[in-house]
């Protein structure tokens, strides 16, 4: 089988190297020609320092689609639709779609599987969990969750002695957990920026998990999914890791206060800053209480003082129900 990976960022390349280690055929599509040429020549990417890129890249979508049997999505969620518009006529060539991206589209409030089904009538799977590209590319032992169609085949083909794939039958839960933990990691970064307190971080992560579950259950996600690698596993790594772009964005907003300034000076894609918009819009519309997400939104987009957010979160009416 030939794996065609859409997206030549850190995760697309690290995952491509992983598949090569498993003797699969891989081609990565990148949208910037100069970057693609540079990576092909140097076998290096600025996204992953000290890592050799073991897979070829192309900028040519025709070449990419002629090669591809299994289409792997590794572009930021807000751009998936734009890329699909360019490739939808190749549906007959694609045997299976495997999604690696974690987020919710702002303008439609859709998950990736829902965007995919607008364009393709093709089997779909999603792979998610605590898997920073930098560590996977360095072959650090990692375990993730896979949900969707052809899961047994994918589990075997992707797993190896440093990457272990567990299976789940909850596509909705895996997608929502992966999207929401990015929002929560921004909140964790904000806490780190304010003081890096242990008690507060533990409380935040626990309540974040609760908020993720409530949101997920609205869409029929299973609670247990959030207690697995795609849920609490990814929440732990993203809220604590030095590699996390979402956590770093939280830290930066405390220091620099101005989101547009941060984005001008940085190439990083922090999916949570987009997903939070979709989550806050949707949860307000249907009446799901999402206090942490709301505060992340207020701090990023309305310039709210993070200290005030924390004070208000602590002073919400006390709960008189049993909580996890
Ligand atoms: N970096 C990581 O450790 C992990 C990332 N992910 C997820 O994978 C997805 C991709 O993340 P990364 O590779 O880290 O991001 P990245 O920022 O390193 O790269 C994203 C890629 O998408 C491309 N891109 C940006 N805008 C585009 C557009 N308009 N059209 C087409 N391509 C465009 C970029 O040029 C780049 O090649 C995200 O959803 C992220 O949450 C999931 C697991 C681990
Ligand atoms: O999803 C990730 C790790 O599992 C990557 O998180 P960041 O996008 O915050 O770096």
UniProtKB/TrEMBL annotation:
It catalyses: sn-glycerol 3-phosphate + NAD(+) = dihydroxyacetone phosphate + NADH + H(+); sn-glycerol 3-phosphate + NADP(+) = dihydroxyacetone phosphate + NADPH + H(+). Residues 4-152 form the Glycerol-3-phosphate dehydrogenase NAD-dependent N-terminal domain. GO terms for biological process: carbohydrate metabolic process; glycerol-3-phosphate biosynthetic process; glycerol-3-phosphate catabolic process; glycerophospholipid metabolic process; phospholipid biosynthetic process. Keywords: Cytoplasm, Lipid biosynthesis, Lipid metabolism, NAD, NADP, Nucleotide-binding, Oxidoreductase, Phospholipid biosynthesis, Phospholipid metabolism. Substrate binds at residues 102, 245-246. Sn-glycerol 3-phosphate binds at residues 102, 129, 131, 181, 234, 244-246. It is an enzyme of class 1 (oxidoreductase). The active site is at residue 181. This is Glycerol-3-phosphate dehydrogenase [NAD(P)+]. It comes from Thermosipho atlanticus DSM 15807.
């Amino acid at each position: 089988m030939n794996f065609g990976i859409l997206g030549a960022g850190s995760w697309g390349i690290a995952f491509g190297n992983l598949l090569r280690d498993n003797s699969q055929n891989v081609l990565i599509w990148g949208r910037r020609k100069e970057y693609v040429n540079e990576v092909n020549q140097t076998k290096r990417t600025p996204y992953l320092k000290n890592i050799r890129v073991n897979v070829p890249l192309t900028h040519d979508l025709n070449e990419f689609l002629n090669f591809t049997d299994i289409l792997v999505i590794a572009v930021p969620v807000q751009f998936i639709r734009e890329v699909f518009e360019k490739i939808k006529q190749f549906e007959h060539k694609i045997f299976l779609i495997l999604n690696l991206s974690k987020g919710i589209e702002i303008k439609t409030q859709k998950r990736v599987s829902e965007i995919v089904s607008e364009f393709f009538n093709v089997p779909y799977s999603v792979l998610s969990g605590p898997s920073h590209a930098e560590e996977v590319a360095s072959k650090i032992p990692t375990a993730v969750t896979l949900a969707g169609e052809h899961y047994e085949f994918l589990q075997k083909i992707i797993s190896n002695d440093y990457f272990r794939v567990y299976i789940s039958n909850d596509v909705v839960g895996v997608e929502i957990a992966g999207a929401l933990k990015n929002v929560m990691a921004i909140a964790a970064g904000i806490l780190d920026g304010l003081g890096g307190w242990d008690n507060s971080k533990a409380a935040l992560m626990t309540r974040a998990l609760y908020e993720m579950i409530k949101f997920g259950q609205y869409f029929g996600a299973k609670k247990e999914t959030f207690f697995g690698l795609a849920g609490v596993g990814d929440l732990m790594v993203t809220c604590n890791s030095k590699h996390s772009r979402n956590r770093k964005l939280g830290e930066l907003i405390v220091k620099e206060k101005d989101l547009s300034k941060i984005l001008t000076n940085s190439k990083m894609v922090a999916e949570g800053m987009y997903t939070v918009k979709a989550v806050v819009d949707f949860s307000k519309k249907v009446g799901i209480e999402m206090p942490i997400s709301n505060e992340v939104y207020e701090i990023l987009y309305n310039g709210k003082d993070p200290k005030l957010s924390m004070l208000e979160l602590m002073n919400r009416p006390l709960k008189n129900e049993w909580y996890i």
